[in-house]
Amino acid sequence: MLFVKNGMIHDAIHPEAFLADILAENGKIRAIGENLAVPDGAEIVNAEGLQVYPGFVEAHGHIGLDGYGIGYEGMDYNEMNDILSPQMRGIDGVKPLDAAFPKAAAAGVTCVCVGPGSANVLGGTFTTIKTAGKRVDDMVVRDNVAMKCAFGENPKRVYRDKKDSSRMTTAALLREILFKAREYMEKKENAGDDISKRPAFDIKLEALIPVLKKEIPLKAHAHAAEDLFTALRIAREFDLKITLEHVTEGHLIVEELAKENVPLAVGPTLTSASKYELRNKSWTTPGLLAAAGCQVSIITDSPVIPQEYLPLCAGLAVQAGMDPFAALQAITINPARHAGIADRVGSLEAGKDADIVITDGCPFQVSTTVKHVFINGKAISPDCSV
Ligand SMILES: O=C1C[C@@H](C(=O)O)NC(=O)N1
């Protein structure tokens, strides 16, 4: 049992912080309130004068699929030979012992949604994992939470001499496989128990059934305004759920995105504009979209920005005008909602996982020190060498 005593609670649900205790048992938050009774044998953490947050959550990254300080041998986030690879699963690329995980956890980033990169038009599924553990299966919060697809420069660049030399091609390839998957799904359903009528098993089309059934969203990589609109157009054509990832030109099309009511993961902004589609990168983007009523998450796209700088990115968005509470939500409850795991993480509420970060100040400021991090109620040492 864990008892966090008398901390200033920022639960990511209520804009105002409040003084309270937190009781956690078996990895879950049991109660949050004033003057809770301390159960016998509980590990007591005195949080007086300290700030208490839910563990920070990344909505979109590749930590663990890209080996820290390794080159090709550690690169496991992009299949580069097959532009339509929906059958890939991010979980199979994760290296839990990678050195990036303890750094992330020590900084308070306790849960990440990770998966394939953007080389392919369809890249495979994302998984959600905690940032501590030895075996990925034990770190999973929920697997196969979204299907990665990519628009814009990346697939066009990677496959330029092979399969994809224009934005039209990207869209056409995606439409073609979605049509095939829909036909495959309908045939399979119509066949019922009659095996002779079932279509021959196709692992790619099979992987797209949860997308067509709206069980998981298309996780659509798009930076430029026109690519964001193409993603939305195709999602509408096939009646799919969609989340928009990167949204670099979001501040140029705020009113349009606000009408769409789709989750937005904005970033990585703490990098230079290394390619044409990033030229309008701005720290104002998350704040403007949040102020217009969009559900905004801020992302590092780790390792593009090291995972531990997620709170710093929120701070830079605040410096550019984002409301501080919206920025806190953008690295806690909103990414949890974005990834479909808000029943488990993203806020301090009874019944949720005991992922708790205790600091001596606002986590957006570089002078702030993370004092304690708990994942599933277990202490993570703030020492990166663990
Ligand atoms: O800003 C970004 C996003 C990402 C991409 O390629 O889209 N990769 C990068 O290196 N920088």
From TrEMBL:
A Pfam family recorded for this sequence: Amidohydro_1
Keyword Chloroplast: no
Gene name in the database record: pyrC_2
Highest taxon above the source species: Bacteria
Matching InterPro entries: Amidohydro-rel, Metal-dep_hydrolase_composite, Metal_Hydrolase, Metallo-dep_Hydrolase
Broad EC category: hydrolase
EC numbers on record: 3.5.2.3
UniProt entry keywords in alphabetical sequence: Hydrolase
Boundaries of every Amidohydrolase-related domain copy: 52-379
GO molecular function: dihydroorotase activity
Annotated source species: Acetatifactor muris
CDD domains reported for this sequence: Met_dep_hydrolase_C
Protein name: Dihydroorotase
